[in-house]
Amino acid sequence: MTEERGAPWTATEIDDVVESYFRMLRAHLTERPYVKLRENELVQQRTSRSHGSVERKFQNISAVLMDLGAGDFVRGYVPLRNAQHALRDAVSERWKQEPEIEALMRAAAKEPVAGARLDLVWSQRPTFTVEPSMMDHRRTPVRTDFLKLDADNRDLGLAGERAVVSLERKTLRQLGLDRLASQVEHVSQTQGDGLGFDVLSFAPDGREKYIEVKTTRKQKQYPFLVTRNELQFSLDEKDSFHLYRVFDFGRPKAGLFAMQGALDSTCLLTPTVYAARPNPNDSR
């Protein structure tokens, strides 16, 4: 049987590709070897779909997992939008049945931060983002809030900030701007949290740069949390505010990308937590 171009995947075909993806995901999380090409070939044999069609389905599964709030996805399968509804339902159901995989993700997120010096490699910002509508309306149980887990990991955040401080000083020195390099300040440590940014640095012309650093061990497509204070500061200082996203922290080549300007312009923001107090006008 040959693949009919554009034909929706059947329930059996979807089961096959989801099974293959979760097998790779478990191997990825336990650092066991696996061969993506071999898994693709196995799905091709069972479904008669093309190599490219299987690859896109794997990428669709990554996107669904991200929307569901999972803590990771198979490395190399960059999330791809427009997943078939039946595939989305199948992945959601499989995710509910895999608390062990979520536990592996949680354990990875809590691993101690290595103290070795970290060199960062600049990267382009990702084109994929989690859909706000999916985050607002998802009903699949989330046993672990991985965004909050990253945000609350102070050791991880501090290590990322220190790496950015080193990078900014190195960059300025390479430009012959030793005086400016010496003035780069890790303000979250010297002045305390709550300023709305973590690092004070400088552009080559001497203008101040206010850098907020967000660090993760995950891949660069993974979302992050920002506080109300950080958002307001970015609005007040939009010409000087920079968000540096450090990703793949702890891997041989950790990366980062930067976004300059107010966060409501550079990011898709989804409210996730509200401060609440009793309403005195509610008599019920």
Detail the topology: elements first, then pairings:
Layout: H1 11-29, H2 36-47, H3 51-68, H4 85-96, H5 99-109, E1 120-122, H6 132-137, H7 146-152, H8 154-174, H9 178-183, H10 187-190, E2 199-202, E3 208-215, H11 228-236, E4 241-247, E5 254-260, H12 263-266
Parallel strand pairs: 1-5, 3-4
Antiparallel strand pairs: 2-3, 4-5
Helix pairs in contact: 1-2, 1-4, 3-4
Task: State the gist of this model.
With 284 residues, this protein is α/β, with parallel strands linked by helices.
Q: Total helix count?
A: 12
What oligomeric state best describes the polypeptide chains here? single chain
Structural class: alpha/beta
CA radius of gyration is 22 Å
Can you give a write-up of this model?
This protein is α/β, with parallel strands linked by helices and 284 residues long. It folds into 2 domains: 11-109, no CATH class; 146-266, no CATH class. The protein is built from 12 helices and 5 strands. It has a 5-stranded mixed sheet with strand order 1-5-4-3-2, with helices on both faces. Strand 4 and strand 5 (254-260) form a beta hairpin. Helix 1 packs antiparallel against helix 2 (36-47) and helix 3 (51-68) packs across helix 4. The chain is globular. The mean pLDDT is 91.
Structural descriptors:
284 residues, alpha/beta, 2 domains, 5-stranded mixed beta sheet, globular
